[in-house]
Amino acid sequence: MAQTSQLRIPGPTPVPDRVNRAMAAPMINHRGPEFKALLPELEAGLKWAFQTENDMLIFPASGTGGLESTVANLVSPGERVLAVTIGAFGDRFADLAEAFGAQVIRYAPPWGEAADPQDLDDLLSKEPEIATVLITHNETSTGVTNRLQALAEVVKRRQRLLVVDGVSSIGSIDLPVDRWGVDVAITASQKGWMLPPGVTMLSVSKAAWQRQAKARAPRFYFDWERAQKLQAKGMTFTTPAMSILFGLRESLTMMREEGLSTIFQRHLRIAAGFRAAGRALGLRLLAADPETASPTVTALYFPAALSGEKSEAVFKTWRDQGLVVGEGQGKLAGKIFRIGHLGAVHDDDVVATVEVLERGLEANGHPVTRGAALTAARRALESSEPSLVA
Amino acid sequence: MAQTSQLRIPGPTPVPDRVNRAMAAPMINHRGPEFKALLPELEAGLKWAFQTENDMLIFPASGTGGLESTVANLVSPGERVLAVTIGAFGDRFADLAEAFGAQVIRYAPPWGEAADPQDLDDLLSKEPEIATVLITHNETSTGVTNRLQALAEVVKRRQRLLVVDGVSSIGSIDLPVDRWGVDVAITASQKGWMLPPGVTMLSVSKAAWQRQAKARAPRFYFDWERAQKLQAKGMTFTTPAMSILFGLRESLTMMREEGLSTIFQRHLRIAAGFRAAGRALGLRLLAADPETASPTVTALYFPAALSGEKSEAVFKTWRDQGLVVGEGQGKLAGKIFRIGHLGAVHDDDVVATVEVLERGLEANGHPVTRGAALTAARRALESSEPSLVA
């Protein structure tokens, strides 16, 4: 198998050497003084990145575990919940709430589109009993970013609890948790945090804590109260994913060195570069509206002639050249490919990826004007216009 | 803070350099061919170490997550469950089942003792409705190993489902899952597997699968059916803890190089060394019966004069010399200390640890005959008698 030199999937993302070195530090006692010193530092760093003063909780689990912790702590069986789903991960969140006994109302615009704040408002006005709204900020399966500020404004005006799946957004896309009134925001280590998978992190508002005290779904491993009680003492309820937390200390340091707004701008710029390259390659974007095209994942349709089973040959050609991109999920399998560009990804990576994308498409019979995609990408990278801000 | 040169807690355990190097490998696509090649290799290695042909499931979570997955998949609300608990982790398993709505009957011998097969048989004969029995193989909080073979024989004869918390035993203490008829056996990466925390692994028998199909507790993240369906395709349901799985491939290789029975003998020998040293230091063992003293954790009472608050000074003296041991949990806090000796621990480590233990006790006023503990430990290490086998 060819060595992967460019891992361009929306997670796991590449882990920088600095982070790898930090993760190789010797294990420590998770009930001892070294960990008691580490944990508050991580909590503070996460609060900075989440732009919040809410409590931060950390669990050894993937992002789906963070979503489950939220459902298990907030939702009671039989309760009506609104799930705003714009793709596979929104559907997963809705399925999860159903598995825990909630009556889930789904607001599901077509894949490739974002949710409409007015539609959400209409829905909530008709559903006064719904106390909790689940929204995906950035939908990894489609490369669409919701207009979260406007959606949050609706949810808050209607006085509902706002839960945001920020797995592939927080730390990469601007999400000021406190300013927008997000009650629970969830992310996972293998995304913008430049870490291996295995840790989920979430912020919990006062209103969410009040709801938690009354919610009646079973919970133990993911119980927030136990978690918070121990974290307040500089420990975790169960054994923490130590190596990844060592890495998190280092990746938070790297993020502080770069600065949040620089990080957000970098992701916007790189996404613009990939979109421009895609257009120059004659490919159609799944996210038709540039205003909601994701800064972290770009989904492109295969040309008709390479769609379906033929797409496998294209993936293979790319893989043989060291480039791994994401496949389409669910109903989009074989129809699209997804370029993940979050975390430790820089302008040079765009150039390297576009080069291989172009060669692979050409090798499989798709006509390209050699170099046009690279030129388009470079031009987009150089003109980082403020209008690109979602 | 002094550098920890000897981490002698019952997990996280030291991670060998070979494993650390393996974990620093570049991330891969968890839906791609490299992972499809890795996963079956890990499953095969785990089946070898679990001595089973049952299905193996792997989740990104701590050991408690593995226990929760078992309760969520096997137990229905209102159902009567027997929890055999001989310490803090047995209590945790019972609490967990209660959190998921089970009516838990506790068989709880005093801390420091093992469960009695005859008592278990009497209990089960009086409780024909109990379909599931939870048993801790090795109780990390007390350093006691249950006579699992005899207990399993009772549970199987009474035709109940046998669930074993093998978090701090599997891979370190002989637990032939198939031979003893264990339906579900659960472990975690940071124990005998020489890995950082963050992954739980468990085996599921046919009978457990049949129960799973009928059980009605809510489950999603830890749902076995989803997990198995994806693992059969060389994937995992949610993003796997990739770096730890890279490490697991290497630690399984190391374990195969050493051989299972050699590993089990090493743990028995080292435990005998620590027990002999403890006695020579004039300390009382919590596990009074040598036949059920744990091969992976040795719990020793502080001398009366150093018990309670004074124990903190002793822990500090040891820590300043680079030795970290475990504290007492729950009602044993301040009364005992626990030496973890599982995973990457070798004869030389016993000598190094005993040296610091002795000096620390002496520095805090406990009279010792210098060198006696070392001599006793060395003698025990050299005479690895078969009678030491639990």
CATH architecture grouping of the largest domain in chain A? 3-Layer(aba) Sandwich
Mean pLDDT of chain A: 96
The count of helical stretches of chain A stands at: 14
Radius of gyration of chain A: 21 Å
> What name goes with the CATH superfamily of the largest domain in chain A?
Type I PLP-dependent aspartate aminotransferase-like (Major domain)
What coarse outline of chain A follows from CA principal-axis ratios?
Answer: globular
**Number of structurally distinct domains of chain A:** 2
Query: Order of strands in the sheet with the most strands of chain A?
Result: 2-10-9-8-5-3-4
**CATH topology description of the largest domain in chain A:** Aspartate Aminotransferase, domain 2
Distance between the termini of chain A: 38 Å
Of all protein chain pairs, which has the greatest interface, and how many residues does each chain bring to it?
Answer: A-B, 62 and 62 residues
**How do the helices and strands follow one another from N- to C-terminus of chain A?**
EHHEHEHEHEEEHEHEEHHHHEHEEHH
Report on this model:
Two copies of one chain form a homodimer. Chain A is an alpha/beta fold. The first copy, chain A, folds into two domains: about 140 residues, Aspartate Aminotransferase, domain 1 (Alpha-Beta Complex), CATH 3.90.1150.10; about 240 residues, Aspartate Aminotransferase, domain 2. The longest helix of chain A is centred in the last third of the chain and has 21 residues. The two termini of chain A are about 40 Å apart. At the A-B interface, α2, α3, α4, α10 and β12 of A face α2, α3, α4, α10 and β12 of B.
